[in-house]
């Protein structure tokens, strides 16, 4: 990405989120990464589901 492309990308409203997502995607490729068990994420998923229902 050249400087103009970088500036254009960074001017997008969700560029920081896109960069964070890309980093997460790259980190997920680490075959020896220590990842919490699924139970670790259950309450977060439930909270997000409640929030989504509240929006509608």
How is this structure best described in words?
Helices cover 68% and strands 0% of the residues. The protein has one domain (3-55). The protein has 56 residues and is mainly α. The protein contains three helices and no strands. The longest helix is centred in the C-terminal third of the chain and has 17 residues, at 39-55.
DSSP summary: helix tally = 3
Using the CA coordinates, give the radius of gyration: 17 Å
What are the segments in which pLDDT stays under 50 over at least 5 consecutive residues?
none
CA(first)-CA(last) distance: 39 Å
The overall number of domains is 1
Search tags:
56 residues; mainly alpha; 0% strand
Task: Lay out the secondary structure.
Layout (H helix, E strand, L loop, with lengths): L2 H8 L4 H13 L11 H17 L1
Concise description?
This protein is mainly α and 56 residues long. It has 3 helices and no strands. The longest helix has 17 residues, at 39-55.
């Amino acid at each position: 990405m050249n400087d103009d492309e970088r500036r254009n990308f960074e001017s997008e409203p969700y560029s920081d989120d896109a960069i964070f997502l890309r980093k997460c995607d790259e980190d997920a490729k680490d075959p020896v990464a220590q990842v919490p068990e699924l139970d670790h994420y259950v309450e977060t998923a439930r909270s997000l589901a409640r929030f989504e229902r509240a929006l509608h």
